[in-house]
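Table 4 source record.
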Amino acid sequence: MTALYVITKYLTFPGAFLRCFWEQFMCKLNKLPIENNKCLQTNEMCGHIEHEMSPGKAKGFFFTFIPGLLTFVMGVVCLIPPLVDLFILDVSSTPVRSVCYVLLYLAVSMLTNIFPSVEDAMVMWENYLEFGTGLRALFFLGAIIMKIGAFCEKYTVTFWTNLAIAALIIFL
């Protein structure tokens, strides 16, 4: 499965680079050492950077959650113009349609790469389980989505679902 995973990361390289950027940004912000900052590797860390884990419970949780959230927001921002232009305005101009397709590719690329590596997701889940009852209830949805999403991304489910959604947008 690693070969298919690496291929999807190379196909969605803008999103993989953006995810790596946010992970490096969080490492710098938390003063965590980075073991390997190569973004596009040929192993299960493709699209992620190897780093030390954050020491605190809350820091560890947000260290993993924030890069995915920021990548998701940027993916949605890239997705809105194609949706508006292709569905609401029904643009027939070739240059505008071309820009819409490029933005749609960027959106799919970013939305495919929003989840952490499985190792980071498992550490985030352990940190989440150590929260108090009130915080645990508040962050349950984010924690469970990140944990399930990490496994879905590992087995390229996110790539295929985003590709299917993009095909629906283009052909409907």
